[in-house]
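Let us practice reading a record.
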Amino acid sequence: MNRKQMIQGCIVLTVAVAVFGTVSMGKTAEAEGSQTKKQAAVETSKKADVQSDRKVEADRKTSELTKKQKETLEQIQEVYDVQEQEKIREELEKKKASSEYTFNNMLIERNPFGTNSLSLYVYFNTEDAVNVAYTVHVKDSSIRDFGRNVYQEQHYQTEHEFQIVGLVPEMENQITFFLTRKDGSTDTKQIVMEMGSVMGSEEVDLERTMEGDAEELEAGLYVVMGDGSEPLDFMYYYDNEGVLRGEIPLLGYQSHRLIFDKDSMYYSISETKMVQVNRIGQVTAIYDLGRYRLHHDYVFDENGNMLILATDTEQDSVEDVVLKLDVNSGEVTEVLDLGDLFASYKSECQKNSKGELDWMHIDAIQWIGNGSVLLSSGETSSIIKVDNIYDAPVISYMIGEKLFWADTEYESLVFNKDGDFTSQGGQHSIAYVEDDSLEDGQYYLYMFNNNIGISAKDEAISYYYKYLVDENAGTFSLVDSFEVPYSEDAGSAQEIGGNVVISSGTQGIFGEYDEDHKLIASYKTDGENGIYRVYKYDFGGFYFEDEEG
């Protein structure tokens, strides 16, 4: 590869274009001139123009909302106010103290905190220590009952406060509660709740195609992280039937995954804000990233700090920095700028047609311990291991196509392929997997291989890829793969139980495959602009008991 080819390499992988929601995740190979660090210093005004364009696009989207949608957006904005959330909590505490709530006289509030329009808050006490479960039934015979054991600090206890998840909109929901004592005796009670419309315009019942046995599907809820066709932004929970069981409002953009600590769930609610929510749906903290724009991914380290992929709006490039968020103090610190590690490469890259220097485009992060992370770079079709991220970050090695980095100072950092296969191209949603059966220094790494750019081996086919990475030998080998619906951009892969959940972003479909890679079920959304990611969560230890899934 000569020097001219290397410069073109900064943009060669950016042929595919896809737009999701208010944020364009597409790229283009059309260059607007060479970008050097010296030139970057005098292009501040151009960067300001790009930022202004984003604001115009956001304003345009808001201006196109109907009156009802604007009112809904105002309601969502009111939800994400910690002080208002605390007031709601205080009102609930007053109600709890105002009466003696029992199994036959429960305190039930419909979505009091506004964080899930298909939920109920429930509180009551019992004389005996009991376990609590519930089922949701609707008259539509095509919709199966939804049931779970609720999470409690103790399996059997006398005070019960929880959130019911799983109600169906625009239907009469019959909720049956089950109390089980230590001796196995039970009590039951039924209530009826008439549910209205959802806040957005998403489908209540997805088009589902069954190829296998529904019993093979893993327990849990599919969480659709973003739907670019919606004028307002939400996360959605769908069950194995494809029935909507949760609608979580967002301020804008899309969420990227759910992450949990002992008592809370975290997710992004806009490009600049993360949120902490407790089990009953109360927003307990909102984290503002300041001048940084979040994109694509976040993960906890072993000390409970959150690492977030972001763009620094005060520099000349996008989607190439990593932040550390202290979820206790709210302090935001930039811990890594890939422009420092790849300075010579960045200096030869070019802006795209939108005027952005999207030269690296990191779209996934995995914490692997001891100060090390794996980063997925869509622009270079490379997976990068960075060590000492908090002290003196250094590139440990890369996994990808050696030819891409040929004749550069980074060529020696690329691991060798062990076997005859085509490396990943424009990958998304990488996942690091430890395995006790492997030797020290070995691990598995799987991903949604979009199969685009210089690494593409077939047209219009994407893949689930799983590598065995051997740090001792400096190699990676393809140990598992299968074809999945093509996605030019976005997409996700998730191993859950013995199955694999795949979402094909640009086609707006997701599905679950068995251990033999045979499709069990697929689900189709009607989003014209596709979906970002779909992950399946059992919510064990959060909404539900661990063993229930």
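A brief commentary: The helical segments are 3-9, 37-41, 44-63, 67-79, 82-98, 338-341, 343-347.
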